[in-house]
Here is the input.
Amino acid sequence: MGLRLAAVALRRRVGSGRAGGGIRSDHSSSLDGGVGGVDPGSVGRIAPSRQHCHTIVEPDSTNGGDVLERVEIETFLALTEELHFGRTAERLGLTTGRVSQVIRKLERYIGGALFERTSRTVRLTPVGEQLAGDLAPLVAAMEAALRKAADASRGVTSELRVAFLGEGTAPALLKAVALFGERHPDCRVEVREVQLSNSRASLVDGSIDVLIASYPFDGMASGPALITEKRVLAVGSGHPLAGERSVSVEVLADHPVVQYPEVTSAGFKRDRTPDRTPSGRPIPKGPAGASFSEMLTLVAMGKGVLPVGEHSRLYYPRPDVTYVPLHDARPIERGPVWRAGNTAAHIGEFVRAVADTAKRS
Here is the structure.
């Protein structure tokens, strides 16, 4: 019903200047595939390619005339935001010539100029401003209706429980949560923090659905990296290495390394606190801490050193701890982690939001 109402309103606004303006909704199009076959990758956007275009506004067939398609509307709205033909083309995956062609066709349909073009600027005409103001909310409403129907068919209408491990992951997580919320407003998202001691247990017992944590995370499915950061070595402020501009991973063989709690995954510990250096030298083990803050306290006390991510400088600044760059260490990746057997639709949609958030960063 909402899609029909939006279509009627669109006919009245756009088609009112043309005899017999009308709407056609082609449910066999590859954009939605029918009510039960929505392509998750296409929901929430209007595909720019010809093969995915819906005809949504057209004059009455008895009067003939051109057909206004979704690509015209999408191109017009994108150009109203970019005010630049090249950027609009890049955004939509079209050529600049194709964008110009589409806009000219739309202007012929309307019967007047929508943009004022000079060699340096592109500006909306009053008619263009009016059309943009009328079209944008209608297109948004139709997209929202499609997303809502797609969510209902895939079960993305319940609650998603996501957690973060470490303060440095929270800002990136919230961006992904915001994008997911825009796409799936009927799915409530609960965000909480977990600790090293209960992160795995929270996933196993189902108290959380998705965790944003460091890779690797043994025995769990993982998505694309949301955060990538360089490694640094946490040392006490009075440690001999504290004054170095950078050090090699090989120095770990010369100093005890503070250990993560026993419950931490084996793969994670092999990555963060390995048994040997890249050249094969054994690395002495220091005491273990129950939490990350406790581990940094052991570092400050001179009980050992600890390889960490460079974001620790920002989120865990301490006057008694210095972070020295590790110039030959691989970067750390953090992203979504979830139980491999949990195939709920809302988890897949959240992972997709994470991937899109990472692309925008």
User: Anything to note?
Assistant: Confidence is low (pLDDT under 50) at residues 1-66. Residues 126-154 form the longest helix (29 residues). The first strand starts at residue 21 and ends at 22. The two ends are 37 Å apart (CA to CA).
